[in-house]
Fold Sulfotransferase.
Amino acid sequence: VAWSSSTDDACAIADITSLPLETRFPPFRLRQYGGFWLLEKFLEGVPALHSVFEPRPSDVVLGSFPKCGTTWLKALAFATRNRADHPPGGLDHPLRRRNPHDIVHYLELQFAVSMGHALAALPSPRVLATHLPYSLLPRRITAGQGCRIVYICRDPKDAFVSSWFFTNKTAAAERARAGGEEPPPYTFEEAFELFCDGICVSGPQWRHVLGYWEESRRRPEKVLFLRYEEMLRDTAGNVRKLAEFMGCGFSGEEEASGVVQDIVELCSLKSLKNMDVNKSGSHGPLAHESFFRKGVAGDWSNHMTPAMAERLDTIVEDALRGSGLTF
Ligand code: A3P
């Protein structure tokens, strides 16, 4: 492999084509690097992210394994952080006009497409995002003053089921665009086997979650670990926690005037899903509407057999044993 991350973040330019390639996760091409299967497109931006990105102390980076509530967290963090400039009850709020992924950008993708120029132009405080594992983040983000990081995790069984629907939808759209050629069969069972082998975007899931979990225990003031299921159960409580962590806790006056509830409502699945901007259009090859499905905990039980669930649970439990993290 022609490049690697080092302590001073000097990255030689990658020869990504020499990395192991996985094409059985349609329509995404994955490359293996640093113990993870990463989106080829995103990986292209990693060397520049390491060598060029200049974090600001006020930056907040949202980390996630895909399909674990990234879109929701992007919306909540942006709405919370920018509530002074954009009151969440306002009819012209940016989230009413733009998809959350067009407001909060993936660091590695931004460096892949434009060397991060759009990020450098953003005013402070910036809310940014990444699907990279903790171990592949630049040290400028993780060491010293670095940035605050918020990670969202979710039951891997629900993440898998969510990714199955998302992947199928995206693959179907890609096929339609390409003229409807019959695809090779890609079944739920095959997708499950790949997931259990850690072959999926940013997989293995358990290794991804563990990196952030351990860092959240080591440096709780810098890494906040959130759970999708907890956020569903008590969204307002988690928004308050998020605000405190980002250094912009709600004042008594804001609490009294219902700002927290306004943010919760603005960013709810129902609200975002029904916005015109999210009913059409796309973020690259990904249709805006494909980011919003059911938004519940436990949907896996409608799609996985008990044997499948037990198998995945066992893999994850074994991998997380001794870490203090359980699902
Ligand atoms: P389901 O497919 O289980 O419904 P990501 O944003 O990381 O791609 O995750 C997508 C999952 O989050 C999908 O789960 C989607 O429905 C859910 N989701 C998207 N927006 C949400 C919101 N505002 N509130 C709760 N869940 C949301």
User: Anything to note?
Assistant: The beta strands are 21-22, 30-33, 36-39, 60-64, 127-130, 148-153, 223-227, 282-283, 286-287. The CA atoms of residues 89 and 262 lie 6 Å apart. The pocket of adenosine-3'-5'-diphosphate is lined by residues 64, 66-72, 158, 162, 165, 267-269, 272, 291-295, 299 (CB under 6 Å). Confidence is low (pLDDT under 50) at residues 1-8.
